[in-house]
C-alpha cells in the first residue's frame, strides 16, 4: 500500500486563518452596506423631494405675470409695435391710419 502524502502544515494553517477571518469580513461588509443605504436614503429619499420655496415663487410669478417678455433687440434702432414682424402687411405711408370700429352702419 502506498501511504498518502503528509499534509502541508503551512497551507493548513493559512487556510484556517482565512476561515476565521470570513465572519469578520462579512460583518464589515454588512456594516458598510448599512452605511451606503443610509447615505442613499439621505441623498435620494422622500425627504429630499421637497420643492425649494424660491422655485415655487418663480413658478407662481410666471403663472401670474405670464411668460417673461423677450429681451429687446440689441440694434440701435427702435421700431414701432407691429413693424418688422414677418407676418404683418406693409404699411402704406401715403394713406392715413384707419381705426376699426365694432359698430355697423
Quick overview:
Helices cover about 45% and strands about 0% of the residues. It is an all-alpha fold.
Give keywords.
mainly alpha, 2 helices, 47% helix, 0% strand, rod-shaped
Task: Walk me through what this model shows.
This protein is mostly helical and 105 residues long. The protein has a domain at 9-65. 47% of the residues lie in helices and 0% in strands. The protein has helices spanning 9-44, 53-65.
Tell me the number of helical segments per DSSP (H or I, 4 or more residues long): 2
Estimate the global geometry from the Cα principal axes: rod-shaped
Rounded mean pLDDT is 76
Radius of gyration: 40 Å
**Low-confidence stretches at least 5 residues in length (pLDDT < 50)?**
none
Order of SSEs: HH
What distance lies between the first and last C-alpha atoms, to the nearest angstrom?
Answer: 132 Å
**Estimated structural class:** mainly alpha
Profile the largest sheet.
none
Instruction: Give the % helix.
Output: 40-55%
Amino acid at each position: 500500500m502506498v501511504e498518502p502524502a503528509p499534509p502541508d502544515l503551512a497551507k493548513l494553517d493559512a487556510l484556517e486563518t482565512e476561515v476565521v477571518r470570513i465572519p469578520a469580513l462579512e460583518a464589515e461588509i454588512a456594516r458598510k452596506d448599512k452605511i451606503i443605504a443610509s447615505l442613499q436614503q439621505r441623498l435620494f429619499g422622500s425627504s429630499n423631494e421637497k420643492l425649494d420655496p424660491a422655485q415655487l415663487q418663480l413658478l407662481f410669478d410666471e403663472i401670474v405675470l405670464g411668460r417673461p417678455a423677450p429681451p429687446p433687440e440689441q440694434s440701435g434702432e427702435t421700431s414701432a409695435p407691429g413693424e418688422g414682424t414677418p407676418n404683418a402687411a406693409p404699411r402704406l405711408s401715403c394713406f392715413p391710419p384707419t381705426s376699426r370700429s365694432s359698430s355697423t352702419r
